Amino acid sequence: MSQRDRRTIASYPTYPEAERAIDDLSDQGFPVERTAIIGHDLQLVEQVVGHVGFGRAALSGAASGALPGALIGWLFGLLDWLNPVLSSLLLALYGLIFGAVIGALLGLLLHSMQRGRRDFASVRTMQPSRYEVMADAEVADQAAELLNELGSAAAGTTATEK
Fold it and tell me: Which tens digits make up the pLDDT trace of 132-153?
């Protein structure tokens, strides 16, 4: 991405508000390809979704191993020249079962190796604390004026108010 000379025309606490400002500019015929939404002050947010015990570790491992096992079994079944459809389905089933068993065992092994450390499941996301709507310097004044006229900047801070 090339570095452009841009100015902040508004700042918003949430992404939908910044998105709405760009949408308002677009509705007024403003060349929105000359704008950008930039998130600032990134934070890592890790939301804990539950406890992971031996049962959940085995189930997760089984689910992870079942699909690759089924695919490998199916591929080997296709190599049978006499009856490839029946062979591929049967070997896919065997592969699914074998993959699930191996996956469950590996899941249990890996969980037990952690010895109680990190025995929870979580989802990580990166979240900015604010979003700035920026425009190329040549059209920034026009964009800020349009936002002020439309009232889109009421929730955010415009560059002219800073």
Answer: 999 998 988 999 888 888 775 4
